[in-house]
């Protein structure tokens, strides 16, 4: 029975772990698609014509349970297909952002196994000339808005979905078609998250603080996988 309780405790611990003050950095490597919005396409989620492949990564730094900050860097193609030529560009892009974490004990409990967030940021998008000549190359600044959610399988790896809506300061990248609003694109990405850095073990019992159920074990005492002293004779005393 004790083994069953121990296994269930470990599963709960893994499913509710999230990036926190225990690990200050988290690296995400992702792939995704870009959804262009402009004069050639006046609606997002037009899946048959506007989606292009994306690749990139982000590095986020933990500030406190409510806020993280970091940088996102990516490369991919943007565009919209039309029989008359349409628009397509290869784009390097990056943005610095600050995230508001919803699992902060104000909106959702810190132990919530999904880690949703909203973010705001600013960056750039550097458009290169497509081989078909269907865009106007150039460097734009962007305002970035969005959100996402992370789920950690263990303290070492998780998955992330992120939506980044970028509004550029130009309206000529889509093959010089100019209208009433600037060119925009939306990046949908799915990535793998790797928390970085050694996890603290305050009582030096070999079980890090994020998992340790007995955080003040005296030095040298033998502990189980949850950091609690063994009770070999089951008398309630370690």
Structural features, described:
There is one protein chain. The protein is mainly β. It has 1 helix and 8 strands. The protein has one helix spanning 2-15, and strands spanning 25-37, 51-64, 67-80, 87-101, 114-128, 138-152, 158-168, 184-196. Strand 2 (51-64) and strand 3 form a beta hairpin. The two termini are 18 Å apart. The model is unreliable at 3-16 (pLDDT under 50).
Short key terms for the protein model shown above:
eight-stranded antiparallel beta barrel, mainly beta, disordered N terminus, 238 residues, 8 strands, 46% strand
Strand content: over 45%
- What is the residue-averaged pLDDT? 83
Gross geometry: elongated
Q: Which class best fits the helix and strand makeup?
A: mainly beta
* Helix content bin: under 10%
Give me the side-by-side strand order of the main sheet.
1-2-3-4-5-6-7-8
Q: Give the distance, in angstroms, between the N- and C-terminal Cα atoms.
A: 18 Å
Total beta strands:
8
User: SSE order in H/E notation?
Assistant: HEEEEEEEE
Rg calc: 23 Å
Q: How would you characterize the largest beta sheet?
A: 8 strands, antiparallel, barrel
Helical element count?
1
Q: Report the uncertain regions.
A: 3-16
How are the SSEs placed, and which strands pair?
Layout: H1 2-15, E1 25-37, E2 51-64, E3 67-80, E4 87-101, E5 114-128, E6 138-152, E7 158-168, E8 184-196
Antiparallel strand pairs: 1-2, 1-8, 2-3, 3-4, 4-5, 5-6, 6-7, 7-8
